[in-house]
Give the backbone structure.
Amino acid sequence: DTAVSQTPKYLVTQMGNDKSIKCEQNLGHDTMYWYKQDSKKFLKIMFSYNNKELIINETVPNRFSPKSPDKAHLNLHINSLELGDSAVYFCASSQEPISSYNSPLHFGNGTRLTVT
Amino acid sequence: GESVGLHLPTLSVQEGDNSIINCAYSNSASDYFIWYKQESGKGPQFIIDIRSNMDKRQGQRVTVLLNKTVKHLSLQIAATQPGDSAVYFCAENWSQNRDDKIIFGKGTRLHILP
């Protein structure tokens, strides 16, 4: 009965390939996010969507393209993968557009992407 | 610039003792602060939060203290248990120039000694 689920859990691919990570939440939240966690455990926001509309787009290479077919899903597509893209990618959701008091972020368990 | 940092990257605590994890933040305009716990192989999990108009909030075995004067946040865990082993992140609701987002600190690993 996972609230925020991501697939796949592990993704190993070669440089130059295109890959997608899928995320679904069953919490009925209006806002979803993608975060990237590097090897030093630093978590940085990449994107957020509210009701399928992009509201946060951090300085992320345009090889990364989020897609939200409906408010329960937020997928991340990455083109021309590079070594530096290796990280753990976390999907999250919250009820409010900006996670606020009594509306914390709910995270999935991450997708570990390894680019060789 | 954006900065939510922690004083200690690793904290070792004897089982049963209290743990205190500290965090410094840089944006005086931030109005909401959160602590997350991340266990190995899992995503961060919400522990407790606090608004900027409060200086203390208590949960089950956890207390968050906020000192806005020195921009300092701490998480206290009472009677630390083996299950508390994890990486703990403080986070702030960064609000500047119409840019609202949750940004995370670097994390502190809590290690429980038997």
